[in-house]
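Tokens for chain A. Residues wanted.
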């Protein structure tokens, strides 16, 4: 019995076979721990550091000429670290996130004279009316989505972007993939009680899928009265792969940067930032 259960826990899942992002970000206990990481300002576990975000907001504002009359959509906005700052430029900002705890924090910390509109929901299907000069997806969130979900999101972004609008996002590069190794860790209360305030046993597996450019960090969390599995998929990208995905949704890859502050690109990057726009013919490619 225990043998079969362990065999099941150690089995290698097919890439992107299960999507558990909602469980990761909305569980009452771990979403509180995530929020603490987000607003810590010094770590890069959930958001980037405060210094990076300040530089990023300055760069994004200049890149898109943000100000009165511009409109920006921040997908997976978390606790509003970018959205609240970007709203201070005078732009109208809409933030979307499915973590109620993060949205509450974002609303409570916004400047009363420049408050973004926050929408609680899944950016893959929640209704967000309007068109935008900038659509932002920060902190490698694009990499957590399956190929079908990425296509679904890019099609939505195509619909949200104005003709001159820009989609700005960051992704993992191939050097990050090369640096990952397969392995498994077991610990009681793994990650310092991150997963529950009740006692638990947990396994953390790292599976690497070199042919697909995918890494999975899988967490099996076993409490006295429930067992959860969290799948944290990470797609890694070359410029060519990103270009092909954007092209299939009627978008074009315009510029590459080293990161979301506009740093110069690295030829062998751990990660990079892409700026895309609607292709002039504007229609998404079907099939
Ligand atoms: C790594 S955090 C980054 C937050 C923010 N962009 C930042 O850099 O500070 C990812 C955020 O995206 C949200 N998220 C992930 N998948 C989502 C989805 N499908 N729909 C809406 N929000 C999502 C999570 O709740 C979390 O707040």
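Reply:
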């Amino acid at each position: 019995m225990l043998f079969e259960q362990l065999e099941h826990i150690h089995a290698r899942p097919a890439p992107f076979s299960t999507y558990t992002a909602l469980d990761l970000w909305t569980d009452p206990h771990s979403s509180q721990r995530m929020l603490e990481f987000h607003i810590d300002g010094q770590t890069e576990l959930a958001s980037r550091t405060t210094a990076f975000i300040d530089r990023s907001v300055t760069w994004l504002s200049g890149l898109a000429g943000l100000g009165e009359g511009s409109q920006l959509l921040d997908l997976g906005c978390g606790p509003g670290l970018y959205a609240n700052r970007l709203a201070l430029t005078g732009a109208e900002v809409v933030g979307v996130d499915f973590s109620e705890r993060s949205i509450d924090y974002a609303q409570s910390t916004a400047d009363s004279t420049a408050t973004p509109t926050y929408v609680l929901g899944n950016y893959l299907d929640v209704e967000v009316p309007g068109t935008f000069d900038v659509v932002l997806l920060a902190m490698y969130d694009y990499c957590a989505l399956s190929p079908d979900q990425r296509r679904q999101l890019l099609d939505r972004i195509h619909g949200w972007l104005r003709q001159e609008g820009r989609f700005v996002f960051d992704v993992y590069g191939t050097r990050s993939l090369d640096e990952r190794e397969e392995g498994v860790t077991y610990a009681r209360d793994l990650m310092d009680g991150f997963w529950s305030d009740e006692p638990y046993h947990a396994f953390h597996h790292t599976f690497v899928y070199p042919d697909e450019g995918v890494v999975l960090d899988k967490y099996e969390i076993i409490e006295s009265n429930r067992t959860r599995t969290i799948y944290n998929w990470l797609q890694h990208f070359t410029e060519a792969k990103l270009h092909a995905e954007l092209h299939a949704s009627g978008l074009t890859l315009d510029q590459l940067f080293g990161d979301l502050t506009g740093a110069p690109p690295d030829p062998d990057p751990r990660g990079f930032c892409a700026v895309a726009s609607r292709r002039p013919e504007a229609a998404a490619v079907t099939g």
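The longest strand covers residues 161-173. Residues 2-12+176-235 form one domain.
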